[in-house]
Structures are given as C-alpha cells and as structure tokens.
Amino acid sequence: MNDPLFQALTIGHVTFKNRFMSTSH
Asked: How many whole angstroms separate alpha carbon 13 and alpha carbon 5?
C-alpha cells in the first residue's frame, strides 16, 4: 500500500501505541 494517508495513519497509530505502552510501564 503506497497510500500516503494510510501510511501517515499507520505511523501515527504505531507511535501512539508505543507511547501508550511506554507510559503504561
């Protein structure tokens, strides 16, 4: 998938998830 919007959403989701996991611990 080369959809820029999809990539932006995926990267944002991963970043948010990583931040949430880091804050959790």
From this structure: 12
Q: Which two tokens stand for residue 5?
A: 């919007």
CB distance 18 to 12 below 8 Å: no
Per-residue pLDDT tens for 1-25?
A: 679 999 999 999 999 999 988 887 6
How far apart are alpha carbons 12 and 7 in whole angstroms?
8
Distance CA 12, CA 18 (A): 10
In three-state form (DSSP H/G/I as H, E/B as E, the rest C), the secondary structure along the chain is: CCCHHHHHHHHHHHHHHHHHHHHHC
